[in-house]
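FAQ: What does the model actually see?

It sees only this:
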Amino acid sequence: MYLTELMTASKVKFGTSGARGLATDMTDRVCYAYTQAFVQYLEKTQDLGPEAGIALAGDLRESTDRILAAVAKAVVDRGYGVEYWGRIPTPAVAYYGLQRGMPTIMVTGSHIPEDRNGIKFTKKDGEILKRDEAGIKEQLIELDEGLFDDQGMLARDSFLPSPHREAAEEYVQRYTRFFPSGCLSGLRIGLYEHSAVGRDLTRDILERLGAFVTLLARSETFIPVDTEAIRPEDRQLAAKWAQEYGFDAIVSTDGDGDRPLISDENGEWLRGDVAGILCARDLEADAVVVPVSCNTALEKTGAFEAVYRTRIGSPYVIEGMQQAAADGYARVVGYEANGGFLTGTPVRRNGRSLSELPTRDALIVVISVLHQVNERQTPVSALVRQLPKRYTYSDRLTSFPPERSRELLEYFSTGDAGKDRQRMVRAFGDLIQEVHAVDRTDGLRITAQSGDILHIRPSGNAPELRCYTEADSPAGAGRIHQQVMKILDSWR
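And it is asked to produce this:
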């Protein structure tokens, strides 16, 4: 059986960040098969020697333990060792593997609801890219069906070894050795813990750098915090906490710690692609690689020698960073609209070095923004005001059938540019009276003559339709966003 056949039968498919699906569909058999296909692909590409092992970690979802056990058994049955690092962030286990040339597997659904989960695969030299995904899908897998019961669960108990601690500590030291000691001294930070797997590590790092940290809203049940579509209740909580405690900022991450949340002193959450600009500036990047959906204030700052725009998804950003490095840029970084930040080359400053980490990370953004608050003696809100005036909104329509999303994109892609633009104007009414440019790098991104932007695209890992809008004022971006979401909702 080829993995593609199992993907169709199980409904568990590759998205932009690995395999994703309903936890009930991610049976032990399905997870075992995905892992076997990944290991076989590593063998085929000679990325895994006979003495090698694979490092595993997971998030705090209820289904994660079971899936980790199935993944571990698949690795062991293939003849390789397992290093289990417990519940730590995705970038922490990836960083550990990259430092040792060891593949890693992270069981996480990131920000999506608890009834879903996922598996992220990283090779010894970084995240799997789209060409790797294609190679994994092509693997012919042979399963011992005697391992599983009628429901696809392991017929005999499987277990994980006791977790080690080194990967977590190395991740902490990555930042405490690069940023100056005491660089966050005097800052009062609220840490929104919820069910983020890296909540304890985040506190540890911030306190080692000198911040005074207040813990907020720790949860023992999973909460799907999406940094790209922030829940109204999270906006309300941040505003309440800011008023109550007088924080310099409130910080958090999504479930697996690769996407940041950071607020200003008023409890207003920063957009991920705005925080990304601040982080790239603090790291003095030469070239910045971002998906097409990111805020265009990046180019308007004039702070960077080159900006590369890609399709949405970290694999495309990584490929863009590789291209930027090949083009001769010495300090290459990337980020996404969700705030996940990647370093494609080492960053050296004041005799300290931060090695590259070409996978999404949250804490580099959090620390960099807070570092600038102390270094410049200015609040977070002032850092944002110093950027060019471009404002964005993003949201999603959940339970939006993927086939309907495809129909919508095809409606605006007839092959006749004039006809397509007429359809866009008719569809979006007063929002777009005249089309200036159309970008189909990923979904449909329309720039009006006024400079307003609206962008729609299907999610790569869930039945959702995402919408991004951008304008020169918050009111303008909000008005476009509200109207576009109503239009899209009527097209279900």
